[in-house]
Design brief:
alpha/beta, six-stranded parallel sheet, four-stranded mixed sheet, 14 helices, 10 strands, globular
Length: 320
């Protein structure tokens, strides 16, 4: 199977790297030629433009920064879609866009696999990230060998649209906890509590989370470089807000988060690292929220292992 990968950025480059590392014949494309050249040194081939990628590959994966970018790439690829070609969308995007574009691919005989990821760049780098996949079970079975080379836990989430909807939800939750952690750490610092002790107190408590175990470390070390920027977080929370409005759910927290992120972009810069939101509170307090002994970079210490399918629990079986 000849595989193409379009979008070699913070997440896409790491997912594509896992494919190359695991022996997949890969063609790559990115607007940044230096990224393509780097992959050529690692054994991949330059794939040319998106149309050439679809023409020459059985599967083309996209991992791009916005729904508009994905739509533009698919439009360029569409004339080369043929029977049995597969488009795998691994971007964090709007489910409505997936449902709009999928019929265009399918009308030409192609298939669509919607496969966003969750777990952070450091886990994408080791092939241990989690992957949601929506689409026909037949398509899932075809792309599953590729998914297990890029991720550890793979969940088939049902029909197209579900994976992107769930992915946006998880990013919304992660952002909410990041903002709450910024406030919690700042209050503890102002109250004179030792910051390393604060970190451990959260880690062993009911207030713990994946976000705390990762991003809090970068906040406390002073690195504040989680490789995820405010414009991307703002996009994801905005997508979640759109889903809520589309379904008539009157949210209160989401609009406040958008307001906070907008203020952060105004002060720190539109593409500032998201964990720098702590600096707004540091400036207000005149104190820094840091501690010794925390890492400058996140490293996934779990060994890479083959991925596997995660199955939705059968509630009736559990209660019988």
């Amino acid at each position: 199977m000849q595989v193409g990968f379009i979008g070699l950025g913070a997440v896409g480059g790491k997912l594509a790297g896992s494919l190359v590392r695991n022996g997949v014949a890969l063609r790559v494309h990115d607007l940044d030629g230096a990224l393509v050249a780097d992959f050529e040194t690692r054994g991949a081939q330059a794939g040319g433009d998106p149309a050439a990628m679809m023409r020459d590959c059985d599967v083309v994966i996209t991992c791009l920064p916005s729904p508009a970018a994905s739509a533009a790439v698919v439009e360029a690829m569409l004339p080369e879609v043929r029977a049995d070609k597969i488009w795998m969308e691994m971007s964090t995007t709007d489910a409505a866009e997936i449902l709009r574009i999928a019929p265009m691919i399918e009308a030409r005989g192609g298939q669509v696999a919607e496969c966003p990821v969750s777990g952070g760049c450091h886990r994408a780098d080791t092939g241990n990230i989690s992957i949601y996949m929506s689409g026909e079970r037949e398509v899932f079975d075809r792309v599953f060998p590729l998914l297990t080379k890029m991720g550890r836990r793979v969940l088939h989430t049902g029909p197209l649209g579900a994976a992107s909807t769930l992915k946006v939800m998880t990013n919304y939750l992660a952002t909410g906890h990041l903002l709450m952690l910024c406030e919690a750490l700042s209050v503890m610092r102002a109250a004179g509590v030792d910051m390393a002790t604060t970190y451990e107190a959260i880690a062993v408590s009911s207030g713990n989370s994946f976000v705390h175990e990762t991003e809090s470390q970068l906040i406390l070390s002073g690195s504040r470089d989680v490789n995820f920027t405010l414009d991307l977080i703002q996009k994801d929370v905005g997508l979640f807000q759109t889903i809520a409005e589309r379904n008539g759910v009157p949210l209160e927290i989401s609009p406040k988060m958008i307001e906070m992120l907008t203020h952060g972009q105004e002060v720190l810069g539109e593409r500032a690292q998201s964990d720098r939101m702590i600096e707004l509170l540091e400036a207000a307090m005149g104190l820094d929220v840091q501690a010794e002994g925390f890492p400058q970079d996140l490293v996934d210490t779990e060994p890479e292992e083959p991925g596997y399918e995660v199955f939705v629990r059968n509630v009736h079986a559990c209660t019988n």
